[in-house]
UniProtKB/TrEMBL annotation:
Superkingdom classification of source: Eukaryota
Keywords per UniProt: Acetylation, Chromatin regulator, Cytoplasm, Developmental protein, Methyltransferase, Nucleus, S-adenosyl-L-methionine, Transferase
Subcellular localization(s) per the UniProt record: Cytoplasm; Nucleus
Subunit structure: Interacts with HSPA5, HSP90B1, TUBULIN, UGGT1 and UGGT2. Interacts with TET3. Interacts with STPG4.
Name the UniProt record assigns to this protein: Histone-arginine methyltransferase METTL23
Entry keyword Ribosomal protein: no
Species of provenance: Canis lupus familiaris (Dog)
Length: 190
């Protein structure tokens, strides 16, 4: 299991916005090694990490990341995109959903957005902060965002010092093309 270039860029975005994080309810989906969620927790957010409930190994990696970073208060739950599980139903309203490099398989895109939509019903102001590695110019979220009543703002990498091959001493971003998106409910006036 790796830390993906997207995770470094999203962690940098969180660091840039660290003053807004204390007390915020933050859920990371498809967390894997969980660098962004760990960063949010270190900045004072109330973080829940999640990965597929069908991949216990990945959930174990999430738990190990919490342990290694001395964050016993961070919960880890199984949350498979597009599945309405007991754990999803029981989640309290979230302020921010983190998603680093989860848009890598077009057939999963709608499942991810349905999970986000479900969380928007609990809090219409919830925002999805997501980094996306451009792997094919043919892939687009636009039609799905329209279908699920969501809007998307592209955040330029230079606006949070992430337009570099090395970020925070990590060479992972390298020459990969990574985009930062903030997705929210289209009818939210904010
Ligand atoms: C490319 S990795 C990104 C991991 C991490 N977010 C990062 O950027 O380092 C994709 C992650 O999505 C998780 N995943 C894959 N399919 C999933 C599904 N159907 N539901 C929930 N998580 C899933 C994988 O277990 C993996 O942790």
């Amino acid at each position: 299991m790796y830390v993906w270039p997207c995770a470094v860029v999203l962690a940098q975005y969180l660091w840039f916005h660290r003053r807004s994080l204390p007390g915020k309810a933050v859920l990371e989906i498809g967390a894997g090694v969980s660098l962004p969620g760990i960063m949010a927790a270190k900045c004072g957010a109330e973080v829940i990490l999640s990965d597929s409930s069908e991949l216990p190994y990945c959930l174990e990696i999430c738990r190990q990341s919490c342990e290694m970073n001395n964050l016993p208060q961070v919960r880890v739950i199984g949350l498979t995109w597009g599945h309405v599980s007991q754990d999803l139903l029981a989640l309290p309203p979230q302020d921010i959903i983190l998603a680093s490099d989860v848009f890598f398989e077009p057939e999963d895109f709608e499942d991810i957005l349905t999970t986000v939509y479900f969380l928007m019903q609990k809090n219409p102001k919830v925002q999805l902060w997501s980094t996306y590695q451009v792997r094919s110019a043919d892939w687009s979220l636009e039609a799905l965002l329209y279908k699920w009543d969501m809007k998307c703002v592209h955040i330029p990498l230079e606006s949070f010092d992430a337009d570099k091959e090395d970020i925070a001493e990590s060479a992972l971003p390298g020459r990969h093309t990574v985009e930062m998106l903030v997705i929210s409910f289209a009818k939210d006036s904010l």
